[in-house]
Amino acid sequence: MKPESLGGIIHSYQRYDPQNFPSPTQPPPDLVSPAFEHMLAYGDMDELTEEQLANAVKLDINQIAGLGPTLESLRKMLEERKRKILETYETTKVVKEAAKAFEQQAATTHAPKEHAESLRRAVKDEQLRELERLWYRAGGERSKFARELLKLVDKLGEKYQIDELAGKYEFTGRESLTVEEGLAVKEELETIDRLLKQLEEAKKNAQVALIDLSEMSQFASEEQMGELDRLQQQVEQLLQRMAEEQGLEKSGRGYKMTPKAYRIFQGRLLEQIFSQLQASRSGRHQGPIVGEGAVELPTTKDYEFGDSVAQMDIVQSMMNAIVRGGPQVPLRMKAEDIVIHRTKNNPKCATAVLMDMSGSMGHGGQYINVKRMALALDGLIRKEYPGDFLQFIEMASFAKPVHPSGIAALMPKPVTIFNPVVRLRADMSRPEISESDVPPHFTNIQHALQLGRQFLTTRDTPNRQMVLITDGLPTAHFEGSHLYLLYPSDQKTEQATMREALLCQREGIVINIFLLSSWSQSEEDIRFAHRLAETTKGRVFFTAGRDLDRFVVWDYVNRRKSIIS
Question: Residue ranges of the alpha helices (H) in 507-565?
Answer without folding.
Answer: 523-535, 547-564
